[in-house]
Design goal:
single chain; mainly alpha; two-stranded antiparallel ribbon; 21 helices; about 75% helix; about 5% strand; globular
Length: about 500
């Protein structure tokens, strides 16, 4: 394991690079500078895979510096098999999002790309830190560039969407902060390892469970605190929607794995039914809402809520299976499925929003009714879109199938009827995915604007090609990903199994 501070590099290179990019007022120079910095960050992140010991359960690439000694707060970094896939997802999707934002916006490009670079560094920090207060600082800091991306470069209702996004996430975070401060008063430290070891009564765990859940559920977002997401997606620029769906939503799921399950395992078991119920509402009810949408971005946004419901379902069947039924195999399936689905959703949702953005750049409309017969004039886009929409529906052989299949298997071991209810998402997702594809791409060209569309250029084919390769490779051969995650998930299950009641 290298002593080189690779995690600090991945955090601060894009942040300082974003600050540097602010000096480039020429749009072309700003875009090339931002893309180059993001590409270097992605290439550097591959070092994590090269130097990571898959068989070790301990944190690796550890860095620690005293930050606020009086409060025992440290600049403490480290990654395991749960964090590394999300760090790599962040660096790759950020690079693809910047490459996709080559034509828009036309004004203040240097500020636009700088916001994306800073957001990339902050998000890597969230997935890399091992100190709860540092996590919270990064967690809150990511609101600022995302708020600006939506509020400055968004659509007609951008200010409303940005404020709604900020208020939802900020208010939830306040309760989370209260919970972290209480944990500090008990443990005398913000280090994850110390928080995992502190004993807590049943009442303390329950209150902490909901305090932590308040901040993380909004980020996922869970039903019923999901209503900010469709507005944010519709108003955000394409690259903003890609980052929001592919990366930002994963912060909530990651937080549940880092905080709720290991810190308050008894409460996680006791209240698992509530999260599971909300997850089923997201999977089924929100999926049905997606079917009737007329705005392409709003449909994909509701689809994201539905798929993230699968993530929370996979996470919260684990405490009951491990502690109540002693079924570690079922819990392992659920946690593996949740993580695989987070990674897959990053690729699939990013690809779908990118396809919609390419259509919007040409037609300046997101309304499904404005299209029809696109396959006749943009056959290359139609081929890529077919793959992405099939992956969104969970087609075997694509990444979308892997996570959903594992979560359904785990859910059946929890309760057969629960697993059956969860499996209905395969039908619902196929309905809204294929219906959207049919209305946009199939049929005759009847709209004058559609007949003038130009097919993908080389840059666009390259971007969608990367998404396609990632979706197919993960779908056909997910073993490297599951092998990378398994030791860390087994360690997490050990925390879940141990009661923390005094």
């Amino acid at each position: 394991m290298s002593s080189f501070p690779i995690l600090s590099l991945l955090i601060w290179l894009p942040i300082f690079g974003g600050a540097l990019t602010l000096a480039f007022r020429d749009p072309r120079t700003a875009r090339w500078s931002a893309l180059s910095i993001s590409a270097v960050t992605f290439l550097a992140s591959l070092w994590l895979l090269k130097g990571y010991d898959v068989d070790a359960e301990v944190l690796q690439f550890v860095e620690r510096r005293t930050w606020i000694p009086t409060l025992n707060i440290a600049y403490s970094l480290g990654v395991d098999g749960i964090a590394i896939p999300l760090v790599l997802l962040t660096t790759l999707i950020s690079m693809l999002a910047l490459a996709g934002a080559w034509r828009t916006p036309e004004k203040n490009v240097h500020q636009y790309v700088a916001a994306f670079l800073i957001l990339e560094g902050i998000t890597v920090g969230i997935f890399s830190t091992t100190d709860a207060m540092l996590f919270f600082v990064f967690f809150e800091a990511m609101l600022v560039p995302m708020y600006l991306i939506i509020g400055v470069w968004g659509g007609p209702r951008k200010v409303y969407a940005a404020i709604k996004f900020f208020l939802y996430t900020f208010l939830g975070s306040l309760l989370m902060l209260v919970g972290l401060i209480y944990l500090y008063s008990k443990a005398g430290s913000f280090q994850f390892a110390d928080l995992y070891a502190v004993p807590l009564s049943a009442t303390e765990q329950t209150l902490l469970f909901f305090a932590l859940l308040a901040g993380l559920a909004v980020k996922i977002p869970m039903v019923p605190v999901h209503t900010w997401l469709p507005d944010a997606h519709v108003e955000a620029p394409t690259a903003g929607s890609v980052i929001l769906a592919a990366i930002a939503l994963k912060v909530g799921g990651y937080g549940l794995l880092r905080f709720n399950l290991p810190i308050v395992p008894d409460a996680s078991q006791e209240w698992a039914w509530l999260v599971i119920a909300c997850s089923l509402l997201a999977i089924i009810y929100v999926g049905l809402i997606a079917v009737v949408q007329e705005d392409m971005k709003k449909l994909i946004a509701y689809s994201s809520v539905s798929h993230m419901g699968f993530v929370t379902l996979g996470i919260f069947i684990a405490p009951w299976l491990v502690r109540e039924a002693g079924n570690t195999d079922g819990a392992l399936l659920g946690l593996h499925g949740a993580m695989a689905l987070m990674v897959s959703h990053g690729f699939v949702s990013g690809a779908m929003f990118t396809c919609v953005g390419m259509l919007y750049d040409r037609m300046h409309s997101r309304d499904i009714s404005a299209y029809g017969g696109v396959i006749n004039v943009m056959p290359k886009l139609a081929v890529f879109a077919m793959l992405f929409f099939m992956a969104n529906a969970g087609l075997p052989g694509t990444s979308g199938f892997v996570g959903e299949f594992l979560v359904i298997l785990g859910s059946i071991q929890f309760n057969f009827w629960l697993g059956l209810a969860a499996a209905t998402t395969l039908i619902i997702a196929a309905a809204y995915s294929l219906l959207l594809y049919k209305r946009v791409f199939f049929g005759e060209v009847e709209k004058s604007g559609v007949s003038q569309l130009q097919d993908l250029d080389g840059r666009e084919r390259a971007i969608l090609g990367v998404y396609a390769i990632a979706i197919l490779v993960m779908g056909v051969y997910p073993k490297p990903l599951t092998d990378l995650m398994e030791p860390s998930i087994l360690e997490l299950m050990g925390h879940i199994a141990r009661s923390k009641l005094p």
